[in-house]
Design a protein that fits this description.
The complex is a heterodimer of chains A (about 270) and B (about 240). With about 270 residues, chain A is an all-alpha fold. Chain A is built from eight helices and no strands. Chain A is flat, with a radius of gyration of 25 Å. Chain B is built from nine helices and ten strands. The chains are: A mainly alpha (about 270), B alpha/beta (about 240). The interface between A and B is large, with 38 and 50 residues.
């Protein structure tokens, strides 16, 4: 009990002294996670679309070759960035680019951090999007083709909106993983929440109280994101009910259509 | 000139020959029923005509132009030849109205106001205007199929292909879809219908094609064909329906 009280008072005094620094770190963390996840989604959708371009026997050799090369490049990108630790990718981008370009190209810490997390997320999202596209019934594509839509239109108006809804939980997963995993960016000196914690305990040795504060903030961030994502999913699903002006004149059994009960309502 | 002229069409999946030397034509205003047992190649034929399957050989002439060697995009051709599927294939992410509008605005590049008017006109014809705001998942099978017909009609196609439009429906819903199709036929729509509804083939269509194992065995006037089948296959096929 004494220890808990001591911990509590240490946490309180630490928060009073350095609360603002923690909050600033949290701000940097959430900003990096949200923006990199969004950028990763864009990259993922682009790669997912490229990987699902249909190639048919009738297509000419030029198209087949180009599509084949593009697909191979995407494949390599996904495998490399999914298969190596983000912490090392950060080191490579931040230190290797200046080294190989004789300091002609030098990214600042923030740019490097955003770039690495975005590209890394993109690699995961590429597979998520590909899986999402494959999960949509083939009939949807055929329905769109049958009214004269091109492959691009079919994707944009029919397949991707449905894909987005289906993979939204996975996008949320990535966002939450990013909130936590951006902590590895301390390796190149990006001052997000974990870096703040590390810097503070380096001076005051209050390792455990600081860890409790940091963990609490991480948990608040992720829980908030979970909640917002749930709300977004619900909004995308639209209302569970719909209004019918009159009964259906052609169906003999008018009233066959079911009024779907409101979400959560009991029968 | 015929709208569609199928010449020596063949299709094989790997070593499996599904269609062999198919020849027939579709004139304006024709209602052609394609009948035959399951696996006889009826649906594959229809899917070849809409290029959802690539034929292995032969020609499909659309107004005299072979669409298989056409330089123009197949999307433009498909916009002129509508298709209604067994499994409806309505877009699940859109409501009934948007399903009928999207093709007009995006493919035909019509103004939205005009597209909505056209959509409402055809939805009215199939009795689905009360449901414009419903999502496909909220409709019954028969209702979905009627929306699918309205969606195809809203593109003002020259020919409408039906791939077993009532096969996935519960018996009490078959009638409402057939009623809509009969109305279309009376209005002079050119239709090509793969069907198991013998009454529809006999009474509504003016041309019947009987397929057996990927080959057209008989074709001609429905009254004559049903009254006096020439081949043993057609006789045995029809007898299965009479027994019921």
């Amino acid at each position: 009990m004494d220890k808990l009280i001591q911990l509590g008072s240490e946490i309180a005094s630490l928060w009073q002294k350095s609360g603002l620094q923690y909050l600033r770190g949290a701000g940097d963390t959430i900003l990096l996670a949200v923006i990199a996840t969004l950028a990763g989604c864009v990259i993922g959708f682009a790669c997912g679309i490229l990987q699902t371009i249909p190639v048919r026997q009738r297509d000419n050799a030029f198209k087949k070759t180009v599509v084949g090369i593009v697909k191979a490049i995407v494949r390599v990108y996904v495998e490399v960035f999914r298969g190596t630790p983000m912490i090392l990718q950060a080191v490579f981008v931040y230190f290797a680019i200046p080294f190989f370009s004789n300091n002609a190209v030098r990214l600042d810490v923030t740019t490097a951090a955003y770039l690495v997390v975005s590209i890394n997320t993109g690699a995961y999202m590429a597979e998520t999007v590909r899986g999402g596209i494959l999960s949509i019934d083939k009939g949807q594509t055929e329905g769109a083709k049958a009214i004269g839509m091109t492959h691009f239109q079919t994707m944009l108006f029919v397949i991707l909106p449905q894909t987005l809804r289906n993979i939204l939980p996975q996008i949320g997963n990535n966002l939450i993983i990013n909130i936590k995993d951006t902590s590895v960016m301390f390796i190149i000196g990006y001052t997000e929440l974990f870096a703040v914690h590390k810097a503070l305990v380096g001076g005051n040795y209050l390792y455990f109280p600081s860890a409790v504060i940091t963990m609490g903030i991480y948990l608040i961030l992720t829980l908030t994101c979970s909640l917002l994502l749930r709300l977004m999913e619900r909004k995308m699903d639209g209302p569970a009910n719909f209004d019918v002006a009159t009964t259906d004149s052609l169906a003999h059994t008018s009233g066959m259509y079911s009024f779907v009960k409101k979400r959560g309502a009991r029968s | 000139m015929s709208i569609l002229d199928i010449r020596h069409l063949s299709k094989s999946f790997g070593k499996h020959q599904v269609l062999t030397d198919i020849n027939f034509s579709v004139e304006k205003g024709d209602v052609t029923s394609i009948i035959g047992a399951s696996g006889s190649g009826k649906s594959t034929l229809l899917r070849c005509i809409n290029l959802l399957e690539t034929p292995s050989g032969g020609e499909i002439l659309y107004h005299g132009e072979n669409i298989l060697s056409m330089k123009k995009s197949e999307a433009a051709y498909r916009a002129r030849v509508g298709m209604v599927f067994q499994s409806f294939n309505l877009f699940y992410n859109m409501n009934v109205l948007e399903n009928c509008v999207i093709g007009q605005t995006r493919v035909l590049r019509k103004k939205r106001k005009e597209a909505v008017e056209t959509a409402i006109r055809f939805l009215n014809q199939v009795g689905m205007t009360p449901f414009v705001k419903a999502k496909p998942a909220q409709l019954s099978g028969g209702q979905k199929q009627r929306v699918a017909i309205a969606r195809a009609m809203a593109m003002s196609p020259e020919v409408l292909l039906f791939d077993e439009p009532t096969s996935a429906l519960d018996p009490e819903m078959v009638g409402e879809v057939l009623a809509v199709m009969q109305k279309l036929a009376q209005d002079g729509m050119t239709m090509l219908v793969v069907t198991h509804e013998m009454a529809f083939a006999r009474d509504v269509s003016n041309h019947v094609v009987f397929m057996h194992e990927g080959v057209i065995r008989e074709e001609g006037d429905p009254k004559q064909l049903f009254a006096k089948p020439q081949t043993e296959e057609m006789r045995s096929f029809l007898s299965r329906f009479r027994e019921q």
